[in-house]
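4.2 Preliminary Data

To establish feasibility before requesting continued support, the project team ran the inverse folding procedure on a target of 175 residues. The structure was first converted into the token representation described in Section 3, and no sequence information of any kind was made available to the design step. The complete token record follows.
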């Protein structure tokens, strides 16, 4: 399987990025350690976007003052992807905790976001609101993942555009 992993960091309102290799990483702690090495200690916000074979995406968010947050567009891929397994436990754990609050959060997001009513083709898991303060509400994130014909790279581009780091991502992709 072919994957792309891009780490982006915001330092003093400017974004920087680099590609990373996850081949030798064994668990989420290893991913976090690798991303922290790439983004440096001064990063206010660190993001890792992973996409594999145009099938699924994962987002890892590291803030200077918090625990890692994870979102996966389709947790079902853990049966076929070693890379997905790195993120799955954290994503599924968060989803189980947040299920109790999901109805209340959806009502609030639906009021703010016109993209309601989207049907999710997959099993999204994790922290759906991890990009909310960077311009992509949980409802919008889920709608992007559910949009027919939308590739994981398209979803990541839309998220990065909202966050103001699309130019950095495009440089990493060679666009």
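Position-by-position output of the design step:
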């Amino acid at each position: 399987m072919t994957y792309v992993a891009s780490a982006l960091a915001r330092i003093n309102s400017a974004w920087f990025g680099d590609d990373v290799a996850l081949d030798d990483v064994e668990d989420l702690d290893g991913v976090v350690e690798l991303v922290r090495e790439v983004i440096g200690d001064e990063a206010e916000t660190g993001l890792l976007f992973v996409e594999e074979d145009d099938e699924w995406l994962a987002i890892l968010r590291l803030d200077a003052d918090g625990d890692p947050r994870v979102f996966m567009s389709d947790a079902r891929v853990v049966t076929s992807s070693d890379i997905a397994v790195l993120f799955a436990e954290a994503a599924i754990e968060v989803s189980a905790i947040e299920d109790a609050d999901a109805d209340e959060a959806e009502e609030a997001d639906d009021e703010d976001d016109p993209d309601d009513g989207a049907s999710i083709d997959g099993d999204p898991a994790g922290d759906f609101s991890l990009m909310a303060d960077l311009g992509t509400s949980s409802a919008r994130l889920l709608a992007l993942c559910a949009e027919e014909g939308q590739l994981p790279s398209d979803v990541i581009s839309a998220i990065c555009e909202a966050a103001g780091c699309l130019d950095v991502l495009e440089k990493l992709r060679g666009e």
